[in-house]
Amino acid sequence: MIRRNVKNDIVARHTRSFAFGPFRLLPARQLLLKDEQAVRIGGRALDLLTALVERPGELVTKSELFARAWPDTTVDEGNLKVNMAVVRRALGEGPDTPQFIATVVGRGYRFVAPVQLLEPVELPALASAPPTPTHNLPLSTTRIFGRAEAIAAIRRDLDQSRLVSIVGPGGIGKTTVAIAVAERAIEAFTEGVWLVDLAPLKGAERAPHAMAAALGLQAHSADVLSVLCEFLRSRQTLLVLDNCEHIIEGIASCVDRILASAVGVRILVTSREPLRLAKERVRRLSGLDAPPEASSVDARGALDFPAVQLFVERATDCNGSFRLSDADAPIVAQLCRRLDGLALAVELAATRVDAFGVTGLLRQLDDRFRLLGGRRAGPERHRTLAATLDWSYSLLDEGQAALLRAVSVFAGAFDLEGATTLLAGKSLDVLDTLVSLSAKSLLAVEPAGAAVSCRLLETTRAYALERLQGTSEEQTVRRRHAEYVVALLDRAKLEWARRPAGEWGASYAPVVDDLRRALAWASIDPENRGLLIRLTVAGTLLWEHLSLTEDCRAHVSRALDELRYSGLVGTATEMQLQMSLAGSVMFTRGLVPEVLTALERTLHIADQLGDIDHRLRSLRTIGSYQAFLGEYETAIVTLEKFAALATEHDASALPDGETHLGISELFSGRLESARRRLERLHRRGSLGFEDSRLARFLHDRSVDVGIVLAYAQWLTGSPDTAAQTAEATVTQGLRTKHWLSLSNALAVGACPVLFMSRRYDECARYLVMLDEQVRQHGIVIWAPTARFYRGALACAQADPPERGIADLELAVEEFRAINHWARMSWVLAVLADALARSARVADAATIIEEAIDWGRAHGERWCMPEVLRIQASIFAAQGRLDQAESTLVDSIAVARDIGALSWRLRAASDLARLWISRSRFADARELLLPVFSDFTEGFATRDLVVAAGLIAEPSPAAAIDVKQRRYTRGGQR
Length: 973
Prior knowledge:
Number of helices: 44
CATH superfamily of the domain at 148-284: P-loop containing nucleotide triphosphate hydrolases
Strand order of the largest sheet: 4-3-2-1-8
Strand content: 5-15%
Radius of gyration: 35 Å
Structural class: alpha/beta
CATH class of the domain at 148-284: Alpha Beta
Distance between the termini: 74 Å
CATH topology of the domain at 148-284: Rossmann fold
Largest sheet: 5 strands, antiparallel
């Protein structure tokens, strides 16, 4: 019985729920319901609410609340204040609504509303994985006043129009309304609702990047807008483009193109002026209603107007004792009218009611407007808000104003450490100042784990930045910002070796925008040359980890140009920059001589400095470069040097060299050796996404192992296993979200293995993914590969194959243009085969001779059996059947010599078919059966199905029919 009671008590504690007012709290579900509808509230805030609700009427001290919400972490009191504000707003507390929580000054909080403990209920199991996000809308913590009709109307507009613009002056509340509309539209868009804040952008050229980032689309192509349009083409999505006015023409062009390309996309815009596009539906927001000037209102009457409601709520937030009296009501009404009902201006005014009282606020406002009379010559949409911001800014003390100006240089969110660095102050003092600025609605402070994340309201950021520009302090602040970014990225490098790659990337990816901003500033003045170089070196790891190859190339090239003026030639700084340049240029420009020059320079400096890591990285990349050039034996020598160095100094790097040794061995025809090497690596287990040094050698190690192993498996007669390995490698590439690794998995693994297996539909599916990677990330080195497989698939699946030949011919030219010579014999053979089947036999004969010459000159033996088999088919098309027969015999011999069982089967099938046409049935069966019998899998693949049919075919009756057939290279396709 005792055990049963204990069990019941545990169940009760984990399944109980509480009811108060219109709310129901289910702690076990981390869920707050209002009228059975979920309320959006953060996890920490929900913990605090639960702690209060469990003890209604009792004082819950600050220390108890800290222990409940942050049990294993020490945090400052600002975190508690921020989260309690979230709780109050989630509960809808206001001057005319019930109060749930009372503050006990200096001690803690008390839940003052009646609470009902509900009977335990059995809760269904929760899914272990979080749902896929369907939007990125911010958590709503404030009530919206006076906009219900506008929100409903705009929501209806979205059902009727694909482009809706919310237009009005700055501070009117456009963003608030847009987010409210977007929240109501989430269920109507299967691919989600995505908010894009365009305010931080200096020019419209970055707008597609911002949209791609909001959608989770990592696009680093030179033409991101095209990538974005392609991504959105078949999606049902709502884009909310916020703060468009400063780049209005560029945004209009982007929006026009997106709407033309993606019929399922709808766009909601906030701007101070319309986009002026066809079929744009414009909704102009006016100020919040305030009591008319001629009226005489008391408190009750004033609170019927949304401007007054907003004022009173914000004033109450800042001063819990504020109550609107009948005497103050006319003054507040006048304040709201003078502020034109601008939501931001009303809120700013309300935050100062504790300092001046409502009468003092009105007096201050009058004085300020007189002083700003000269601004009336400016654009109409700027006047009132500019005056309000000027007025609010003038009420700050010097410390608050200095901090506001300083943090305006951050690109987005920042933390206490960043703010303290820019102000060169003490963290506790800076925290107090941040909290005071937050109370004045000049910045948002949000809990972020054990720390606090801050973000300026964009209008305020622009205003503060304008105040900073041209002052004596600007250069100091910007230098501190740049130094802070360097320090942050230096710390990131230290953590890189210890933290899982995914976690590391998520933590530091947001720093990219601040890095760009710091580099832009440092590049202006030659006096900042040294800092520019330090920023670039610090940023290389982040760019490489995030596959931002074009960013890396551009900035590293600039930094290298500056080295000769900085006395850093031949130093570790140059070594790091040269290594980054080599990798980024190789993927964005191809195998140009600049790559090898940079690698050899890196190796030279590393040798001089005794830097083992850069010696390893440069040797491994040189080996890769040589393999791409088709210099397999040279690559093997280089990679053996890598292996010897790694064995002596850093055994952890050995697998990265062995993968490239394996691919060079494979292409030079040492198939069994390559397969044994790669299977040994695979059995050991390869470092993957959770490896902290994911991109040490530019790619994920598991992907490198998988792509070479899949090749070796197919060639040596394991077609099913090869396909499984290739597909698993792509899955690994997707899981890492390291796009260089994924592109390798597709270009070197999945597409060739599935094409050689004649699994054309599967190959086509992966080709689509490869095309996307090339376009999104500007990975030029794989562009000809994608074109080649596009043409090869068209030729393989069409009869005649003319429509694919143009792509094949252009791909060959592109391979040559970027010095991508690896597998050139096979590439040319595929083209020759297509030409022959398109009745261009003379052209085919010329191309196949070139393929054979190339293969023999460069030792490219892995595909020589297939090249010879295709040559035999061309001989047959020319009526030279004896030459076709002898060439097929040579093909089989080479395949046997290098262990290429799959090529051997294909050549034996062709020769068997030729012998059957000459009534040599027994010879054909005797030739083909032993080869077929060597296979242990893949019996449903086309090559084995064809071979089985030929083995079963020989008979005199069949021979009569066979003789009528024209001998072709490939038999059944």
